[in-house]
Amino acid sequence: MERIVDARGLACPQPLLSTKRALEEMGEGSLITIVDNETARDNVVKFVQSQGLRAEVEQKGSDYYIHIRRSEGTELRRAIGSMSEEVMVISSALLGSGDEELGRVLMQSFLGTLAQAESLPKKILLINSGVKLACEGSPVLDSLMTLEQRGVEIAACGTCLDYYNLLERLRVGSITNMYSVVSALAEAEKVINF
Amino acid sequence: MGPGTLAKILEQVPQMPSDRLLVGPETSDDAGVYLLDQERALIQTIDFFTPIVDDPYLFGQIAAANALSDVYAMGGMPLTAMNVVCFPSRKLDLGILREILRGGADKVLEAGAVVVGGHTVEDPEPKYGLAVTGIVHPDKLMTNARAQPGEVLILTKPLGSGIISTAIKAGMAGPEAVQTATAAMAALNRAAAEVALKLGVRSCTDVTGFGLLGHAAEMALASGAGLRFWLEAIPVYPQALELAAMGLVPGGAYANRSFLADRVSFAGDVNEAEQDLLFDPQTSGGLLFTVPAGREEECLNRLRERGVLAAVVGEVVAEPAGRIEVVRVRRS
Hints:
The complex is a heterodimer of chains A (194) and B (332). Chain A is α/β, with parallel strands linked by helices. Chain A has two domains: 2-70, TusA-like domain (Translation Initiation Factor IF3), CATH 3.30.110; 80-193, 3-Layer(aba) Sandwich (Hypothetical Protein Ychn, Chain: A). Chain A has six helices and nine strands; from the N terminus they run E-H-E-H-E-E-E-H-E-H-E-H-E-H-E. Chain A has helices spanning 14-26, 38-50, 100-116, 141-149, 158-163, 178-187; strands at residues 2-6, 29-35, 54-60, 63-70, 86-90, 123-126, 153-157, 174-176, 190-193. Chain B is of the alpha+beta class and 332 residues long. Chain B has two domains: 12-140, CATH 3.30.1330.10; 151-327, Phosphoribosyl-aminoimidazole Synthetase, Chain A, domain 2. Chain B has eleven helices and 13 strands. In chain B, strands 8-11-7-12-9-13-10 form a seven-stranded mixed sheet, with helices on both faces. In chain B, strands 1-2-3-6-4-5 form a six-stranded mixed sheet, with helices on one face. In chain B, a hairpin with an 8-residue loop joins strand 1 (21-23) and strand 2. The mean pLDDT of chain B is 94. The chains are: A alpha/beta (194), B alpha+beta (332). Chain A binds chain B through residues 12-13, 16-17, 37-39, 42-47, 50, 79-84, 120, 122, 150-152, and chain B through 166-167, 169-180, 239, 242-251, 254, 272-273.
């Protein structure tokens, strides 16, 4: 069956969004997006091509019919915005278990690399001794500051800061409570635990 | 409105020649400049638009930074500003309008100017901006008509704010792109203009609705010179290229492209997304100005000291006059 998205009269980026939604919903099959201006036509075609799919444009009067085919098993590429729904939970100041010094070095190099990475999590939650990473004297303060500047929300567990007597020494990010931690985890598309 | 449409309409409106008009509409510059006496010229400009970010305070800041920029681009200092407001006061919470105006007021304060009043209109779609009046010494006036072959081009903000604004509307912009672009849009061009003035720059424009190449083409035409850009040297907001390749390109970019089609040439290896970025209409974009070749390092250093991350993005050439060429890398 052929699906039709009639995006005539809609302003950009609406035709692209309607096409994106239809492609996500239908799995496989054919889709026709109808638009009534060249900007919408070119933008929908660019979007379809960026997903590794083919688009054929047919002009009917002043409208453009964009024929799109999605065959079985073709994965849609992740839209950029959706990358941001990732939450990273760091529950220790050391990375991995084993030698303590090694754990410290690994965490330093991990956060240093993450700070330069192209795709970033939306949030980093610091729990238990993980909160020490964001406090005065931590060797990874610079990396966490870079991450924060790049738009990553950094939150440290208040109970944990209190337990380690570090409430006054937090240098990056905000203090959070268990309620916010729970809702951040519930909303997250993907949770990475350390 | 697209540059082509506007030019056609203005042709049919009477022109007003005046001995005192130092910069009028005919060179498509950023603001009008009117000579008061030997020491002083008046700069006037207006700019307003629909919200481009959800946060009303931030929107107010961006709209004001954008309106003030035209004064800086002429080498002037803003003195007074008037709010221009369209707002559906019966449909939207008035607290939103308060935040917009607060954002605008804070930017005007930062610029050292004062808001002296304004005008509001009931409108289903909110719009905000300012009419700004500034002052400049006639000898220090920077215009888009003085680019000289042998100079290089400096750009003081990255490109891609139109594409990122479109992606924000679509909910497809990542947090890093949003944060970087909105912070830069809200930043005044004051420090950049002050550095340019200290260096004796006489040729400057700001990059706004007609995109980098649109404003460059005006500069080329008004100066009777050609401009050559080095694509790899042009700073771009994070993700802007990917978003352009995904079709999050504002209609204005297509309008700019078709208006400039016969004045711009691209090297064969410049792809469509890269071209879109160069035509992308900017909100509160950076200054584009020229300095003599050899002084670019000094200029970049001074800008860096003032917190402005600028780049040398191209050069002024004698031929072909009035045209723009985009190559991938600088050729010595």
